[in-house]
Write a structure and sequence with these properties.
Blueprint (H helix, E strand, L loop, with lengths): L2 H7 L5 H10 L4 H12 L19 H11 L11 H18 L4 H10 L1 H8 L7 H7 L3 H21 L17
Helix pairs in contact: 2-5, 3-9, 5-6, 6-7, 6-9
Length: 177
């Protein structure tokens, strides 16, 4: 397939901001891009049935908490602003990465279905392999979401040279790189 077609299938909008905000939160920018593609197809005006908004589909209640964490004013309409969505979404992704010690499959499942569900799904089985975890996700939508975002991440690495992800290490509470 011609390169132009691949770039249409896997767009990379807000590239500088996406990379910068991923870097601030020590996240793999290809994972952030893949998540945005799945969440909103890079549409800053996206609004889900559940009320999630913007590029990274932040739910207003989560946005409120993230605004407090980031010490910025909260306005629901700001969730459609690409910069705000990237700030909030990457911070939340970092929080999930810290919570699940960088286990990307669990991080993505938590981003999609909520950490309380991932905790319930893994209760009593903390050492479950990534493959077994994905196969055990009881929500078809979340299981598919995790698989698609991971496949998209690989394409973003290939297409945009994002093939050297950072080592994700949980950060101590309150510390930022």
């Amino acid at each position: 397939m011609p390169a132009e077609v691949w770039h249409i299938l896997y767009p990379l909008r807000f590239d500088e901001s996406l990379r910068a905000k991923a870097s601030v939160e020590s996240l793999d920018p290809s994972l952030v891009a893949a998540l945005i593609l799945q969440e909103s197809t890079f549409d800053a005006d996206a609004l889900s049935r559940a009320g999630a908004r913007g590029l990274m589909q932040v739910i207003p209640a989560t946005g409120r908490k993230l605004a407090r964490d980031l010490r910025v004013p909260y306005r629901k309409a700001a969730l459609h602003d690409p910069e705000t969505s990237l700030d909030f979404g990457t911070r939340y992704l970092r929080q999930m990465s810290d919570r699940y010690e960088g286990q990307v499959e669990r991080v993505l499942a938590a981003y999609n279905a909520g950490p309380h569900r991932v905790d319930a799904w893994t209760a009593g089985r903390p050492q479950m392999s990534a493959e077994d975890f994905v196969e055990s996700i009881p929500f078809t939508e979340t299981r598919f979401y995790v698989m698609v975002v991971l496949a998209n991440r690989d394409q973003y690495r290939r297409l945009y040279g994002l093939d050297k992800p950072p080592t994700v290490v949980p950060l101590a509470e309150g510390l930022r790189p």
